[in-house]
Amino acid sequence: MNYIKHLTGFFDKLVHDFDLNPTHVSLYISLFQFWNLNRFENPISITRDEVMRISKICSKATYHKCMRELHEKGYVIYEPSYNPFRGSMVRMVNLSSELKPLSKKEVTQLKNKQVIEQEVNKNKTSNDNSTKQALVSSINIINNTNSKNNINKEEQTKNKKNNMFKKKDMLHDTEKAATELSKTNEGKNIENTIPPGLPNVIAFFKEKKASEIDAQKFYNHFQSNGWLVGGKTPMKNWQAAARNWMLNSEKFKIKNTVILKPNHLHVPNEKNYSEPL
């Protein structure tokens, strides 16, 4: 079995058969591979899943359609088994016998055709070269425009870089001004910064002739609730809040200093315990 002659016979027959499509070709090549693995013995046993996997056919309907058409056109002889546990039988038709030997006249005619085609191709290439030479001027024009575009791009990049440097200088100046303002305002806002430090609070309370314990109570209270007035609004001036704290603490001390005298029992001093209750 000469498989080269067989394949040439298949493709020779395929050229004149306009009803076949790529799925038929892939199916036949996969069947030829199975035939090759079985050392070109007829018939061969195949399974649908393996043939579909090799031929890259995903649909069962197209597989059966292509197999039926190959059988009808005489490429293969298909004998389905209709049993899932038993493979179908395929007999490959020998297509090498259909090749007809060429006569001497036909061989000379083929050679002459090849020589003529080569000369035609040479003439085409020469014409293409002439047209390319004629288009050199237009290519030069395109190159000039491209060079101009490159120059414009370079100028645009330079302008962008200059703008970036200008923006950086502006930002640097604004940062300097902000730092200077912050330095000037540091001495003014140290006392009113929130949250204040505990030493500042104690010093303020001592300045107002209040006790250090009240200062610690004030600091611990507002430190625990995040320096919020009434538990809702953020504090703006802790010194004013401290003054209110001192006033409220004095009022609370006055209320607590009121001494409640116990009332005497309204009982006569002399009582006759012999009388019944």
Which spans of ≥5 residues are poorly predicted at pLDDT below 50?
132-136
What is the rounded distance between the termini? 141 Å
Chain-averaged pLDDT: 77
Shape: elongated
CATH domain topology of the domain at 3-98: Arc Repressor Mutant, subunit A
Order of helices and strands: HHEHHEEHHHHEEH
> Class of the domain at 3-98 in CATH?
Mainly Alpha
What is the tally of helical segments? 9
Q: Any idea what the CATH superfamily of the domain at 3-98 is called?
A: Winged helix-like DNA-binding domain superfamily/Winged helix DNA-binding domain
Counting DSSP E segments of at least 2 residues, the number of strands comes to 5
Identify the CATH architecture of the domain at 3-98.
Answer: Orthogonal Bundle
Helix content: 55-70%
Layout: helices, strands, pairs:
Blueprint: H1 3-15, H2 22-37, E1 44-46, H3 48-55, H4 60-72, E2 76-79, E3 88-92, H5 104-134, H6 136-189, H7 198-207, H8 212-224, E4 228-229, E5 233-234, H9 238-257
Helix pairs in contact: 2-3, 2-4, 7-8
Give the structure's gist in a few sentences:
With 277 residues, the chain is mainly α. Helix content is 64%, strand content 6%. The N and C termini lie far apart (141 Å).
In words, what does this structure look like?
With 277 residues, the chain is mainly alpha-helical. Among the domains are: 3-98, Arc Repressor Mutant, subunit A (Orthogonal Bundle); 198-255, no CATH class. It has 9 helices and 5 strands; from the N terminus they run ααβααββααααββα. The strands form 2 sheets. It has a 3-stranded antiparallel beta sheet with strand order 1-3-2. It has a two-stranded antiparallel ribbon with strand order 4-5. The protein is elongated, with a radius of gyration of 54 Å. The N and C termini lie far apart (141 Å).
